[in-house]
Structures are given as structure tokens and as C-alpha cells.
């Protein structure tokens, strides 16, 4: 009976572990369904221009709110920080300080709308430059790349969360509920990264014209030809360098031999007769040389 009771406990423990793993998998599977549905819809869509425009408005609205919160006075605004972020992250140069000086009704909502309108103008100018068809293909490609990269990073974060979630039980917190809450937060962060990366990439991408591509290829050919000429010149210089002969070579050889003679050390000359080891020591102690001063040498 004791063996059966212990076996039932082990089986119940293993069943609880499998149940928890399935609950964790259900949370990740729900998120996977959302991402795969969005990705499938993205692949089947001919144009994602409206979706990209909505995402762009959300990104710039969130960014403007971060530096210019709603229902605040101008002393609480960080106009310089907003300008620097727009230029560093999106390549958008916008002189908000000068615009505020000329604007009669400047509040947080007006600033937000001005940022969004300026971003729309920048993207419309880019579309006129590269063409609508290229812009639609670019939007689709960038969005797919952003979704795939962010989803891989999210899966790694979920695995890391699952490995350490049981430690929350020491703080009297239910690991399953904590896992669901943290997983939802990570999923929201991933969606935010996808939106920001999409807008940043589209804002900074630059499509070269045929003339620019031709000029770049010509410059690369000229640089390659210059490197080849330098390499040939270095080879010819190295092979032409040979030992000199004749009078100048003889003088150089004599100079080297003379230097070698000067550098040779002179032989040691003994000042007195050699003292044997068994001879009396010259110091007058009466001891043999090997037991007196010879021992020191």
C-alpha cells in the first residue's frame, strides 16, 4: 500500500507539471495565433498603405505625447528633446521652436498634429520620389521583416521568462498568473517595437535612381583600377630592388666588413702565470689554491 500511495503521489506530481506546461503553452499559442493571422493577412494583401499610415500616426502621436504631454503648460514641454529625437531616430528635421513662435494657438494637441502632418508630408515626398508601386512593395517587405525579427526575439524572451517564473512562488505569487501577466506585457512591447522599427526603416530608407547607381558603379570601378595600379607598382618596386655591384657595391661591402671587425671582441690576455688548483695559494695562507681563493673562482 505504501508503494502504491507513493506511486500515486509521483504520478499526481507529474500530472501537475504537465498541466502547468500546457497552460504555459496555451499562453504562447494564443500569441502565436495572433501573429500568424496578422502575417497571413499581410502576405495576402495587395497594399498595406492604410495600415502603415495608421501605425505611423500612432508612433508619432506616442512620441509627441512623451515630450509634450496632454493637459500641460508650455513650461513642462521638452521641445528640444522632441526635435532631437525626430531627427536622430526618423531623420525628420522640424524646427518646432520657430513654429511655436509664429503659431497663435499652440497647445499640446496642436503640436501633436503638426508633428503628424510633417511626417505625412515627408512620407508623401518619398513616395513621389520612388513611385507608388515601389513604395507599396517596400512597405510590405519592411513590415514582414520587422514582424519576423520581433517574433523571434519575443520567443526567446518567453523561454527566459518560463525558466525563472517559478521563483515568484517564494514571494507568495501564483507563477501561472504571473506568467500570463508578464507574457502579455512582453507581447505588447513586441508590438510597439514592430511599429517603431517599421516607421524608422521607412523614414530612413533611400532608393537610388538609375543615374546614382551608374555613378556609384563607375566610382567603384575607378577605385578598383587605382588599387590594381598601386599593387602593380608595389610589385615592380620590390622585384627591381637588387644588390648593387661595381665600385659602389665594393665600398659598401668593405664598410660592412670593417664594422664587423670593429665589433669583434679582443682576446683576453693573462697578467701572470696560471696557478694550479693544488698549488699553494698566492695569498700566503698556506692552503691549497682550490681550498682558498680558488674556491671563490
Give a quick rundown of the structure.
This protein has ten helices and no strands. The chain has a domain at 47-212: Helical scaffold and wing domains of SecA (Orthogonal Bundle), CATH 1.10.3060.10. The protein has 297 residues and is mostly helical.
Report on the architecture of this protein:
The protein has a domain at 47-212: Helical scaffold and wing domains of SecA (Orthogonal Bundle), CATH 1.10.3060. The chain has ten helices and no strands. The protein has helices spanning 2-44, 49-67, 79-90, 96-102, 108-130, 132-164, 175-204, 210-240, 247-263, 293-296.
List keywords for this structure.
mainly alpha, Helical scaffold and wing domains of SecA, 297 residues
